[in-house]
Design brief:
Largest sheet: 3 strands, mixed
Low-confidence stretches: none
Number of strands: 3
Structural class: alpha+beta
Order of helices and strands: HEEHHE
Strand order of the largest sheet: 1-2-3
Number of domains: 1
Oligomer: single chain
Strand content: 25-35%
CATH class: Alpha Beta
Shape: globular
CATH architecture: 2-Layer Sandwich
Number of helices: 3
Distance between the termini: 21 Å
CATH superfamily: K homology (KH) domain
C-alpha cells in the first residue's frame, strides 16, 4: 500500500524527489504522505477531491489484504 501511495503522489507532483511516505500499524495501517509545500495543492485538489480519490484507492488496496487503512497528508 505504501508503494501505491508513493507512485500516485510522485505522478502528481512537480518535485517527486521530495515525496515521503511512512507506513505504521499492523491490521489498521496509517500512512503519512508528505510532499513539497508547492505541491500540496496538487495532492489535495479542489475541495479535497484528489486526496479523497487517493483515500478511496487506498481503501480498496487495504481491503484486498483484509486490513483497514487511513491516509494523512502532512505539512512539510
Amino acid at each position: 500500500m505504501k508503494e501505491l501511495i508513493e507512485f500516485i503522489a510522485k505522478s502528481l507532483v512537480d518535485h517527486p524527489e521530495q515525496v515521503t511516505v511512512k507506513q505504521s500499524g499492523g491490521n489498521r495501517v496509517r500512512i503519512e504522505l508528505s510532499v513539497a509545500k508547492e505541491d500540496m495543492g496538487r495532492v489535495i485538489g479542489k475541495g479535497g477531491k484528489v486526496a479523497n480519490s487517493i483515500r478511496a484507492l487506498l481503501r480498496v488496496a487495504a481491503e484486498r489484504e483484509d486490513k483497514q487503512a487511513t491516509l494523512d497528508v502532512t505539512e512539510p
